[in-house]
Amino acid sequence: MTVKLRPHHLLCMLTYVGKGYSQAFTDNYDRVIERLAGGEEIIIGEGPDEICQPLLETTEPHCHNVSVTERDTQALLDVGKLLGRTLQVGDRLKINLSTLEGLRQSFAGGTTRTACVGCEWFKLCTTVSADGYDSVKLHIVE
């Protein structure tokens, strides 16, 4: 099985602590995180993904906004640089412990955060990374 994630969610998953837009959203996000922790592969998708699903049931979900698609574009570039390859929609990624730690280190250092500018969760994610990711839900055990 694979988990479809839009590019900027490759960054959001790093700091996810169980907070979100609604209980349905966080319940769904928890399930996605469990699948990733269980070793499921990621396929990079375009537009709303598995994390977005509960928001699509609301009026005017922000998942289609230009600002969100711009975040996706920037996240592809930033994460791709870190991984040493060009990333694009349709690519598959397997997140192992080493990759997760590298992504988190880079995120905490600010080198993969350009996609986060203007995001309403920026402050929370900054706090989570500054605290050493102690409260995050995504853990990879090898």
Summed up, the helix count is 5
Order of helices and strands: EHHEHEHH
- Main beta sheet strand tally, sense and closure: 3 strands, mixed
- Overall morphology: globular
pLDDT < 50 runs, ≥5 residues:
none
Helix content: 40-55%
State the separation between the terminal residues, measured CA to CA: 19 Å
**Strand order within the widest sheet?**
1-2-3
* Structural class determined from secondary elements: mainly alpha
Number of strands: 3
Explain how this protein is built.
This protein has 142 residues and is mainly alpha-helical. It has five helices and three strands, in the order βααβαβαα. It has helices at 9-15, 23-37, 66-83, 97-109, 122-130, and strands spanning 2-5, 41-44, 92-93. Strands 1-2-3 form a three-stranded mixed sheet, covered by helices on one side. The two termini are 19 Å apart. The model has no long low-confidence stretch (mean pLDDT 94).
Task: Give a concise summary.
This protein has about 140 residues and is mainly alpha-helical. It has helices spanning about 10-15, 25-35, 65-85, 95-110, 120-130; strands at about 1-5, 40-45, 90-95.
List the helices and strands and how they pair.
Layout: E1 2-5, H1 9-15, H2 23-37, E2 41-44, H3 66-83, E3 92-93, H4 97-109, H5 122-130
Parallel strand pairs: 1-2
Antiparallel strand pairs: 2-3
